[in-house]
Amino acid sequence: MISKKITLTFLGLLITTTAYAEQRQTDIPSHQQFENQIRSDIGPLAGKEVASLKVLYLSGDIGPWVDTGLNLDSGDHVTMLLNGKMWLSRSLNLSYPTPISVWAKQGEMGSIFHGTRDTNTFVASQSKSSLRLKLYPSERWLDTTGKYAGEPAPVNPDAGGGVSVALIKWAKNIDVETELNKLTTKNKPASWAVAELDRQKNQKMPPEGWNYIWELTPSEIFYDVPAVMGENAPKRAIELRMHDDVTIIEKESSFELTPDTKLGWKWKVDELPSAAPENTIPTHDYISIAVKFDNGKDLTFFWSRNLPVDSSFHCPLSGWTDRETHVVARSGTADLGKWLGEEKNILDYYKKAVGGPLPKRITHVWLIGVSFLQHGKGLSQFGDIKLYDGKNQLLVY
Predict the structure, then answer these.
(1) How far, in Å, CA of 189 to CA of 102, rounded?
(2) Do the beta carbons of residue 281 and residue 316 sit within 8 Å?
(3) Which CATH number does the domain housing residue 149 bear?
(4) 43-52 pLDDT per residue, tens
(5) Which of 150, 181, 202 finishes a domain?
(6) By residue range, what is the domain housing residue 142?
(7) Which of 203, 223, 268, 359 has the fewest CB atoms lying closer than 10 Å?
(8) Which SS3 state, helix, strand or coil, does residue 7 take?
(9) For residue range 102-155, what is the model confidence (pLDDT) as tens digits?
(10) Does residue 219 share a domain with residue 181?
């Protein structure tokens, strides 16, 4: 009976998300519409405020890095605009958020990066280098220069799609914010300029001392909440608020792994991002706290929709299966909205859930938010995060 109920829930999810996918495809302007609009907006600035404009289409069927031909010098300002959708599976409505789909780097050995929204302005860090672009690989990044694992399948009618990209290289000594403001005051304001000004003024930053891991890089879903309310609430908290997003923030937290090493934290989860058990690829949306070890593996503790407490599984995503293990710390919806304290013996859970040779140290604490697979929302807060073993204590947050 349980397996049938899960199957029905899962099939219901497929029916819902497939209809959503069909609707959303019609909402996205075509490449031609996107290009026409950008060229119309930029036309009066060509050769004056704008030094160069490139508009191109990154197909989901193309694997390698693409040289855009946009040559940059250190200090050049470039605004990048995105439009489209990269499909992992059309039938399951699996797709990356557009800002995470498109990655960039300068030259062959430049560091990879992407923006947090469909608009982004960055400053070139190298001279005499061309800008290169690539869609997120089918498995994972291997290093910060853009080596990767996973190429698009030779034929996959269920995947594909792509993203249109406009690259606006501003003339030297131009104040980009001033020019964007001018574009918003026309008779027909440039919507992308409005969006980029909003990003520049209102972009949320991670808490002090926390950084986004390099292979996912920035988002805007984690930030400080200084005044926290509620019974058992900490004095301050990190809020996670997401919608169709994914990222991990980390804090360096070197701590010896002994039989007594524990991770303690408080959390309040208000909204779970998954509508079904989180141990399959289409439903692997979750909120968690994790520890990363000196062997490269990580162990995450998450709040499940309905999986049993203390059950565990390796990450179903191919790029993470060999290094990430999930443990259910809480389950169900009865305690949503309450501040709850947790304490987990890390070595015990490592032996039970991960197995194999034991690491010697914890190196980082992670906070993880995933909601891009079902395109849902998640809301939670974390506080009083610490590592301790009876003799030593490290206050992480």
Answers:
(1) 26
(2) yes
(3) 2.60.120.430
(4) 999 999 999 9
(5) 202
(6) 23-202
(7) 203
(8) helix
(9) 999 999 999 999 999 999 999 999 999 999 999 999 999 999 999 999 999 999
(10) no
